[in-house]
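Working notes for the structural subgroup meeting. M.R. asked for a predicted model of this chain before we commit to crystallization trials. I am recording the input and output together here so anyone reviewing the notebook later can reproduce the run.

Input as submitted:
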Amino acid sequence: MIETKGLVKTIGDKMILRGINLSIKKGETVAILGPNGAGKSTVLKILGGLIKASSGEVKVNGLDLKKDSYDVKRKIGFLAHNSFLYDHLTPLENLKFFGKLYGVENVEERAKQLIDEVGLSFFTHDPVRSFSRGMMQRIAIARAIIHQPEILLFDEPHTGLDQQAIKLLNDVILRMRDEGSTILMVTHDFQQAIETCDRFIIIKNGKIVDDLQNVERNIDTITEKYMEQVSGL
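Returned structure, recorded in token form:
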């Protein structure tokens, strides 16, 4: 589903990624773990087509990201630190706008359904600039999945969410997984990763240092493995 070979990213004289080789199967939910500055978000941004790698290959379903950028991006839903929402528009207007970009059929019906799913029906016609961080994140989640993407890329998705919104997001992740979507999630929240992900990839200093299956679903086990790899920074 997703393959990277020798992924390198440099900015000036600083090397951010040092040859990332990934192989993600269709339907996998994968957490990317690592300390601040390890290169986790950079990997996600390259896969999402937001920035370009300095060298290396990215293929999605056999399509080369460089050559087939448009076709690849249509398969992806991206939830980043930035909501990408237009703050003067309402949730309905935002979702209709993004839905039309992706050619979503019955876009207004789909938008209203998602607004209801994220628990913001009462605010359907309010401009999002008046929303709290958690409310903005809920609409951003809806924006990311409006076109029912085959691939979801989440960058610290649980940050700033209350418990109700965390449960809602986890339900979305699990539902999309059950429907066959492939999910990559950069996170520092081990508990949420354990609840939603099948696999953990640990990155340190721009390199993959471990690749674990979430068999035990035990936070102590994952924490111990993580600390073994990142200690001594």
